[in-house]
Amino acid sequence: MVILVVALMLLGSAGFLIHLRQSTIENAEENTVGVARLLDETLTRTLGTTDMLLRRMAEIARAHHHGRLTDAQERDQLADLQASLPERGSIVVIDSKGDTIASLIPSPIGTTVNLSDRPWFKAHVEGTEMVIAPMVFARYSNNLIFTVSRRVSDDQGNFIGVVACGIHATYFTNFYNSLVLGQGGVIAAAGPDGLILRQPNPELYVGKSFQNGLFLSALKEKPTGTVLGPSPLDGIERINAYRKLKDFNIVVVAGMSLDEVLAPWWSTVGALCLAMLLAGTAVAGLALMAFRGIGREQAILAGLEQRVRERTEEAEHRAEEARLANESKTRFLAAASHDLRQPLQAAGMFAEVLSSRITEPSTVAVVDKLRRSIEATNSLLGSLLDVSALEAGKITPNLSTFRLMPLLAALVDQIEPEATARGLSIGAVPTDARIVSDPVLLERLLRNLLVNAVRYTETGGVLIGCRHRGDHVAIQVWDTGIGIPASKVAKIFDDFTRIDRPGMAADSRGLGLGLGVVRRMAGLLNHSLEVRTLANRGSCFGVVVPRG
């Protein structure tokens, strides 16, 4: 009887573990398929919109070549199109020799940059109309980019140059950070010539490609699917979902590390083995004691089995509830971060295009209000999603040591158009400080402080700088705004706390989440916050970070 019980326990446990392992892998496959679909949609929209803008720029370059546009007119239209890019990037115009003849970014070497050695330029010389080139380090900014380019021909069809757009890898870093793929998870996209994006650590995979081996054989069978096996790039065994973009010769992949996916399963195996050992010991003890009182031992065994069943059912019920809640939150964050933002970004782009084509003053005013409304809605949605992601614990700081001044200068450049529109001055105090923080999260935190300062300042200006405090640096934002009443200072970092000034426009008011997001990000980074204010005189918000 003891042997039979042990055999049954082993067979039942083995069957349970096999079923649990298969279910775990299937759930991971569903997750990677969803991420691959989202990456497909995002990249398709990005490439489609970028190609549309490049077609327009090619027409402008052709008109300039034939003398129908001046240099200034070409540069103005280049600026308008670059501002309409769906992601951060830059457009350049290149002549038939490979020399850059129009760009909004100054040359880093002080002379004309020649790009004739780029493979995509050579492809255009040979007659290719449109090229999506792999990741490279840009010669203008040294940023990691992938290039979308179009051939430019004159009115007789002769090759006269190329228009190209370098799209920064930063956007896809933020996209990757919003996903839940684990430490070993990856997203990637590749064309025939190599990788156009790969996260994380894209700089390690410049010049590499994955369209061989594992994925090549799978793509021959069908354009979408899942494969399990080692990555050709880093050798890590992953559960991968792949999709071939419908409109472009690009394959996207989302993968999760098999070891990470099965880690909870292995924990269950260990726990079950320990339980089996304990149960086997108990059964053997009961068998030895059966000679003294089989009836008593049977009653004890029945009670023990009942308690084990009840606790197992309770544990499984709670585990199922936790799993469903976590999956629901994960799907919400992933879908909302992109599926909700993409339509707003497209609406903003269309509003910009509409604004550039309308000259009637009354209609221009309406389009301007539309644009501000879209920007306000996007800002409100961003705040809500930031709060959700921070509350869910889906954001992990990536601390590094870096120079503070480039971050401050970039923030001022981003906020300056809004400040100028309000008649305010904005600037950054130069500093050579180096700090230790997460540059992405710190930038978002400081941007919220600057946006709040501009929003609540009617005259004067906003200034950002830092003060040294021993082994720390206090990054401070000063403004000459309306200040904060003493009764509200203690609650200013609470959610949904707003200070409405008289006459404030409806589209200028937020939900009162900006400083709540600042508080959560500062807590995540282990940075302390400080505030000083005088009613009707201005405020000073600061965040204290370690020096590098």
Content of β-strand: 15-25%
Radius of gyration based on Cα positions: 30 Å
Helix content: 40-55%
**Overall pLDDT confidence:** 81
Oligomer: single chain
Q: If helices are DSSP runs of H or I spanning 4 or more residues, what is the number of helices? A: 11
Structural class: alpha+beta
Topology as a string of helices (H) and strands (E): HHEEHEEEHEEHEEEHHHEHEEHEEHEE
Number of DSSP E strands: 17
Poorly predicted segments: none
The dominant shape is globular
| Separation, N- and C-terminal Cα atoms | 68 Å
Largest beta-sheet details? 5 strands, antiparallel
Strand arrangement within the widest β-sheet reads: 2-1-5-4-3
Describe the structure.
The chain is of the alpha+beta class. The protein is built from eleven helices and 17 strands. It has helices at 2-65, 71-83, 119-125, 170-177, 214-221, 258-289, 294-357, 361-391, 404-421, 439-455, 514-525, and strands at residues 89-95, 100-103, 130-137, 144-153, 159-168, 186-191, 194-199, 224-230, 237-244, 251-257, 400-403, 425-428, 434-437, 461-469, 472-479, 528-534, 538-546. The protein has a five-stranded antiparallel beta sheet, sandwiched between helices. Strands 7-6-10-9-8 form a five-stranded antiparallel beta sheet, sandwiched between helices. A hairpin with a 2-residue loop joins strand 14 and strand 15. Helix 10 (439-455) runs antiparallel to helix 11 (514-525). The radius of gyration is 30 Å and the shape is globular. The mean pLDDT is 81.
Entry summary:
The protein has 548 residues and is of the alpha+beta class. It is 50% helix and 22% strand.
